[in-house]
Amino acid sequence: MTDLSSTSVAVSLPSSLHSLIEVENAAVVLGGRTIWQNVQLTVQQGEFLAILGPNGAGKSTLLKALLGLLPLAAGTITVLGHPARRGNAAIGYVPQRRHFEADVHVRGRSIVRLGLDGGQWGFPLPFIQRRQARMAAARVQEAIDLVGATAYADRSIGELSGGEQQRLLIAQALITSPQILVLDEPLDSLDLRNQQGVAGVIRQVSRETGAAVLIVAHDINPLLAAVDRVVYVAHGQVEVGTPQAVITTETLSRLYNTPIEVLRARDGCIVVVGQPEEEISYHAHRAR
Amino acid sequence: MLIVRAEMLPFSWNLIMDIQMLLHYHFMQNAYVAGTLVALMAGMMGYFMVLRGQSFAGHSLANVGFVGATGAVLFGISPIIGLFIAGICAALGIHILNLTTRQSRQSDIASGVILSASLASGFLFIHLATAEYAANILNVLFGNVLGISDIDVSIILWSTLLLISVLAVIARPLFFASLDPAVAAARRVPVRLLSFGYLVLLALEVAVAVQVVGVLLIFALLVTPAAIAQHLTSRPMVALVLAIVLALLFMSLGLTIGYITPYPVGFFITTCAFGTYVCVRVGRFISKRLARTRFTVSTETKIGRIS
Ligand SMILES: Nc1ncnc2c1ncn2[C@@H]1O[C@H](COP(=O)(O)OP(=O)(O)O)[C@@H](O)[C@H]1O
Ligand SMILES: [Mg+2]
C-alpha cells in the first residue's frame, strides 16, 4: 500500500527530469547466439511503443531484458534510475500467451488479485485483516473496471474467451499501478474484433494511468492510433523511430536484407509486401 | 483381526451409542485419528495437485511408496522412513528431469520414467525379501487402517503439523506459481524451488498415508475431493476448504462403513469419493443443459412476442 503513494508522486514528476527506461549499447547472448546488439533506446513517461519484428527476432528477449529476467552480454539497462532487476513493482508484465486451459477452475478475480500480493509468503486471513482485505478487493475491482472485465470477472478463467482472458491478465499487470506496462503479443490469437477491443483497452489504460506502454505486436494497424514510436527488431538489429520513419521501404529492406515494399492505404493502414516466406504471416491483416 | 470382529458390538440406530461403540476399541480410535489427519493433508495437497495439473506426478509419487515400503522391509528400517526416503528421491528425480525441459507439461514424462523405474525396483525388493513378507504386500498396496499403532499416530500427527505450517507459509506463492509461472517468476517468486518443495510435501503426505489407505488408494483421496471442489466453485479459498471437508467426509464414511461391514475400508473411501465425483459431474452437466434450454425457451418466447 505504501509504495502506491510513492508511485503516484513519481508519476507527477515532469517527464524531462528523467526517462523511465534507458538502454545503452545493450546486447543479449542466448545459447551462444547473439540475439541482438548495440541497442539504444530511451523511453519517456507515458510513451506508447510498439515492438515489431519477425518471429524469433528477439522481441520477447528485449522485454525480458528490461524486466531483469535475462543477463546482458554488454551494455546497460536502467529502469527508473536503477539497473533492471527482477521483481520491479514499477513494471506490469503480461508475458507472451499462455492460454488458461479449460480445466482451470479459478475465477478471473482471483487471477487479477495475484498481481497484488500473489508473491507474498504467509497465509492471508481476510477475517482478521478486514480493512486490508477490503482495500485489496477494491483495488482488484478498480483494475477490473479499468479493462472492462466486470461482467465475467467471477467466472472460471478457463471458460473465458482469449480476449476476455487477455483483459483480465492486463488487469493483473495494472493492479500495482505500474509506471511501465510491458505486454508481449497481447493481441496474438485474437480475432479481429477482439484485437481492436483489447487494443482499445490498452490505449485507454495508457491514457488514464499515464503509464508508458511497450507492446509487442505482429500487426501495428490496430495500435496505429496510439503508437508514438516503433521499435523494429530484425536480424540482430534494432531500429527505433516513429512509424512513418521506421516502417518504410528503405528501413525494412535494410533490416531484412531483401526488397520489401511498404504501402499506406487511404485509411492509414500499413501494408508490408514482399517479406521473406517464413515471415509472411507477419503483418496479419494486409488483406483488409 | 477376525477374533476382534467376532466380539464387536452390533450396530444400532442410536447415533450416540454407535459413535461410542465405534470409538470403543483403541485400534478404532487410532484409525480415526490417523485417517482424519491423512485426509486433512490429502485435501490440501490435492487442491494444489489438481491446480498444478500434476495428477500424474502425484500418482507416481504415491506408487513410489511401493518401493519405499518393500525396501524398508528388505533393509530393516521403519516403513515410514523408507517411504519418505523413496518419496524424496522420486521428487528429486522428477524435479531434475524437469529442469532441462522448458515446458511444464513435460512433467508427465519425467513422472512416468520415475514411476516405472521405482516399480521395477520394488518388484526386485519383494523378490529378495523373505516369502512371509509377500503377505504384507496387500497392506502396502491398500493400507491397513485397523493396524495403526500409537507411535504411528504420533508420527502422523507431527507430519501433519509440519506439512500444514509449511503449506501455510508457501500457499500463496505456490498458488501464483502454479497458475502463472511466467509472471510469478518475474515477480521474484522462486517458482522452481516451490515446485520442488511441493513435491517433497507430497512425498511426506504419501509416506504417512500409505499405512492408512495404501499406495494405490491414497491417490483417490488426493485427486477426487480436489477435483470435486474445483467443479463446484471457482473461488480458491472456498475450493481449498471444500476439498479438505470432502476428504474428511470420505475418510470417516469409509472408516465407519468399513467397520460395520466385513469389507475393506479403502474400498469404501474410494467408492464414496468416486460416487460423489460422478454425481457432481452429472449434476453439473444437467444443470448446464437446463440453463441452456431455459435460455433458448426464453429467447424463443421473446422472439415470439416481438413477432
Ligand atoms: N533460453 C534460451 N536459450 C537459447 N535460445 C533462446 C532462449 N530463449 C529464446 N531463445 C532464442 O532467442 C531467439 C529470440 O527469441 P524471442 O525473443 O522469443 O523471439 P520473438 O521475437 O519471437 O519474441 C529465438 O531464436 C529463440 O530460439
Ligand atoms: Mg515472443
UniProtKB/TrEMBL annotation, chain A:
Record's protein name: ABC transporter ATP-binding protein
Family annotation (SUPFAM superfamilies): P-loop containing nucleoside triphosphate hydrolases
InterPro entries for this protein: AAA+_ATPase, ABC_transporter-like_ATP-bd, ABC_transporter-like_CS, Metal_Ion_Import_ABC, P-loop_NTPase
Organism expressing this protein natively: Dictyobacter arantiisoli
Keywords from the UniProt entry: ATP-binding, Nucleotide-binding, Transport
Keyword Nucleotide-binding: yes
Domain (ABC transporter) ranges: 21-260
GO MF, one annotated term: ATP hydrolysis activity
Automatic annotation (TrEMBL), chain B:
Keywords: Membrane, Transmembrane, Transmembrane helix, Transport
GO cellular component terms attached to this protein's record: ATP-binding cassette (ABC) transporter complex
SUPFAM superfamilies on file: ABC transporter involved in vitamin B12 uptake, BtuC
Annotated membrane topology: Multi-pass membrane protein
Main localization, broad class: membrane
Transmembrane segments: 31-51, 71-97, 109-127, 156-176, 196-224, 236-260, 266-286
Name of the molecule in the record: ABC transporter permease
Signal peptide per UniProt: none
Protein's cellular compartments: Cell membrane; Membrane
Keyword hit for Acyltransferase: no
Short name of one Pfam family: ABC-3
Family: Belongs to the ABC-3 integral membrane protein family.
Domain of life: Bacteria
Record flagged with keyword Membrane: yes
GO biological process annotation, one example: transmembrane transport
